Amino acid sequence: MQLGRRLRQLREERGLTLAEVADAAGISISHLSAIENGTRPNPSFLVVAKLARTYGVPIDSFLDSDALPNAQATADADVSLDMSASYAEMAKRLAEADALDNPAVLLEVLAAYLREREQQYQSDPDTDADGAESDRNAQRPDR
């Protein structure tokens, strides 16, 4: 399901108006309307996170599972899924820290996440941050 349709569904299920949701999320009514109608299909991460918080749903509930590639379809599918998992993890951390309205907290959460990723990489450079074996060895002629 597309993001706009999902947002409209959530709003209608809750019996809310565009104005109520826009006000609660801190965005304009016209912006929300454009997202719901599909004329603005790729809103910023910040807007999506605010809407997820407004509706009380996890941000990854907006990921379109039908649009994700089949893991067996291509070698790139694993990369896409890993990126989605990383995106969802970052969104979860930002929401838990209520970092979206506080730039200092936002930067702290991002810095902590990047430090963790760097430490994971340094501890085993042939494994990505999610623990999956990378194919860097296959790309290196010396191995």
TrEMBL record:
<dbReference type="InterPro" id="IPR001387">
    <property type="entry name" value="Cro/C1-type_HTH"/>
</dbReference>
<dbReference type="GO" id="GO:0005829">
    <property type="term" value="C:cytosol"/>
</dbReference>
<dbReference type="Pfam" id="PF13560">
    <property type="entry name" value="HTH_31"/>
</dbReference>
<dbReference type="GO" id="GO:0003700">
    <property type="term" value="F:DNA-binding transcription factor activity"/>
</dbReference>
<feature type="region of interest" description="Disordered">
    <location>
        <begin position="117"/>
        <end position="143"/>
    </location>
</feature>
<protein>
    <submittedName>
        <fullName>Helix-turn-helix protein</fullName>
    </submittedName>
</protein>
<dbReference type="GO" id="GO:0003677">
    <property type="term" value="F:DNA binding"/>
</dbReference>
<keyword id="KW-0238">DNA-binding</keyword>
<dbReference type="InterPro" id="IPR050807">
    <property type="entry name" value="TransReg_Diox_bact_type"/>
</dbReference>
<feature type="compositionally biased region" description="Basic and acidic residues">
    <location>
        <begin position="133"/>
        <end position="143"/>
    </location>
</feature>
<feature type="domain" description="HTH cro/C1-type">
    <location>
        <begin position="7"/>
        <end position="62"/>
    </location>
</feature>
<dbReference type="InterPro" id="IPR010982">
    <property type="entry name" value="Lambda_DNA-bd_dom_sf"/>
</dbReference>
